[in-house]
Amino acid sequence: MAKAMSGQKPVKPSPDGLAASVKAAKTRGLPPVHLWNPPFCGDLDIRIAKDGSWTYLGTPINRFELVKLFSSILKKEEGKYFLVTPVEKVGITVEDAPFVAVDFDATGEEEAQNLTFTTHVGDTAMAGPDHPIRLSDGTPYVLIRANLEARIDRKSFYRLVEIGTHHGDWFGVWSGGQFFPLIASDKLEG
């Protein structure tokens, strides 16, 4: 993306320009996108599919480093997704959740259990009060960061069910000192 110079027409946003802006702004760790409120520069035909794959103009973005870079500047505002830099913001399309939780590590047991999820782009988050697990129409999600969720993949969900427990009238999992209900106990068969 490039800013228009005085007297010149605005330049249409592009992924290459966006990547250059991010590299220039990025330091260590994730950029502070929650602090960035640049002007909206239009939409890019970037799509994150339900399986976590990224496309630009219908063509897969196969470079993991580029996907990881773009995912680090992803922001959700009022139900819409944007890629942001300190000076520009462009809209993108997300089919479901922007991330897929492809694995998790479990430590401890029962109420002392902690579940740390890893996404397809390498982000991690320990489920708990700041990173809740929720079910929507039978699909499990975990909050990864700043209003951005990961859909928990099938194999990880099955593993969650294997380590689940009953608490009150619910079957679910513990993590970070919090119980996350998955299904009403009376709905479980056998």
How would you describe this structure to a colleague?
The protein has a six-stranded mixed β-sheet with strand order 3-2-1-6-5-4. It has a six-stranded mixed β-sheet with strand order 9-8-7-12-11-10. Mean pLDDT is 88; it is low at 1-11. The protein contains three helices and 15 strands. A hairpin with a 2-residue loop joins β2 and β3 (59-60). The radius of gyration is 19 Å and the shape is elongated. It has helices spanning 15-25, 64-71, 154-163; strands at residues 40-48, 54-56, 59-60, 74-77, 80-84, 89-94, 99-107, 114-119, 124-126, 133-136, 139-145, 148-152, 165-167, 170-175, 178-184. The chain is α+β, with helices and mostly antiparallel strands and 190 residues long.
Task: Give the topology.
Layout: H1 15-25, E1 40-48, E2 54-56, E3 59-60, H2 64-71, E4 74-77, E5 80-84, E6 89-94, E7 99-107, E8 114-119, E9 124-126, E10 133-136, E11 139-145, E12 148-152, H3 154-163, E13 165-167, E14 170-175, E15 178-184
Parallel strand pairs: 1-6, 7-12
Antiparallel strand pairs: 1-2, 2-3, 4-5, 5-6, 7-8, 8-9, 10-11, 11-12, 13-14, 14-15
Radius of gyration: 19 Å
Strand content: 35-45%
Give the SSE string. Answer: HEEEHEEEEEEEEEHEEE
Q: Give the overall shape, derived from the CA principal axes.
A: elongated
List how many beta strands DSSP finds. 15
The quaternary organization reads as: single chain
The poorly predicted ranges are 1-11
Rounded average pLDDT = 88
Largest sheet: 6 strands, mixed
* Total DSSP helices: 3
Helicity level = 10-25%
Distance between the termini: 57 Å
Major sheet: order of its strands? 3-2-1-6-5-4
